[in-house]
Design goal:
- It is a single chain.
- The chain has 272 residues and is α+β, with helices and mostly antiparallel strands.
- It has a single domain, classed as Sandwich (Jelly Rolls), CATH 2.60.120.620.
- Helices cover 21% and strands 17% of the residues.
- The strands form two sheets. A six-stranded antiparallel sheet has the order 1-7-4-9-3-2, covered by helices on one side. A three-stranded antiparallel sheet has the order 6-5-8, with no helix packed on it.
- α1 crosses α3.
- The longest helix has 18 residues.
- The mean pLDDT is 94.
Length: 272
């Protein structure tokens, strides 16, 4: 098991680079886990969240997309002081939040097909990391309740898994409050839930700063709400520029729309 015995960002990041994944155990405060669980429960109840409509989404699985738009409690997840530096070390210091989703798999849920989370990116494989996912366990992950199945080293494959393809997997068993971090090219899928309880977690998907996000954060989040977010999270959702250029609006850094005092690093300022 690639379970880290340290929260040192570079040590964990190296395991993600080499193996494609790593677990940081018990990194989330138990009180925070309980708050997030309660908020996910309340959100699903308020929205009357339905079960999935196909095998991939899971017919005994419920999902809430675009969590930032649902409750301020979720804002702490993408900018966690331990997890974010690890992801930055693997991916890109100017990364973006690609999507933020709460998922719960219920008893009876079948195994999810193996897939790669960067499957929509049409570049030759293997390639440098373009997406890194931090999966926050809000319940214990066990073999019995369908802990995520992983194919170690598959981030180096020259292709994505084929539909219905089987492969040797390991189960990412971990306690609630732990975080599984993996390369978006890694083959993986939820396991079958044979227990009598649901398994709940949050999927925080990051992408390189020049890659299009899964969720269009600029349309999904009201600008007045973005103004209330911490500065780092504003940049993560897209109110900023990548390497001083990508994402500008008529020569302006969109971050200045929500903060008059930010220091911008637009490429034109560096030119002589």
């Amino acid at each position: 098991m690639s379970t880290a015995d340290t929260t040192d960002g570079e040590v964990v990041a190296e395991r993600v680079r080499e193996d494609g994944w790593a677990i940081v155990p018990d990194v989330i405060d138990p009180a925070a886990v309980e708050r997030l669980r309660a908020t996910v429960d309340a959100t699903m109840a308020t929205d009357e969240t339905p079960f999935g409509a196909n095998t991939f989404l899971g017919r005994d699985t419920r999902r809430v997309f675009n969590l930032l738009a649902h409750d301020p409690a979720f804002a702490a997840v993408p900018i966690d002081a331990t997890v974010l530096p690890i992801v930055e070390a693997v991916l890109d210091p100017e990364l973006l939040l690609s999507s933020l989703t709460a998922i719960e798999t219920h008893p009876g849920q079948d195994a999810q097909p193996l897939h790669a989370d960067d499957g929509s990116i049409s570049l030759a494989r293997p390639h440098p990391p373009l997406a890194v996912v931090a999966l926050w366990a809000l319940s214990d992950f066990t073999e019995e309740n369908g802990a995520t199945r992983l194919v170690p080293g598959s981030h180096r494959e020259s292709r994505r898994p084929r539909p219905g393809e089987a492969a040797d997997t390991i189960s990412a068993e971990m306690s609630a409050g732990s975080v599984l971090i993996y390369n978006g090219s890694l083959w993986h899928g939820g396991g079958p839930n044979r227990s009598d309880a649901l398994r709940q977690f949050i999927v925080c998907n990051y992408c390189a700063g020049w890659v299009r996000q899964e969720e269009n954060q600029l349309l999904a989040l009201d600008r007045s709400y973005v103004e209330t977010l911490p500065p780092r999270l504003r940049r993560l959702v897209g109110y900023g520029v990548y390497r001083g250029l990508l994402g500008h609006v008529a020569g302006d850094d969109p971050g200045s729309w929500v903060d008059d005092h930010i220091e911008t690093d637009l490429v034109w300022k560096r030119m002589r």
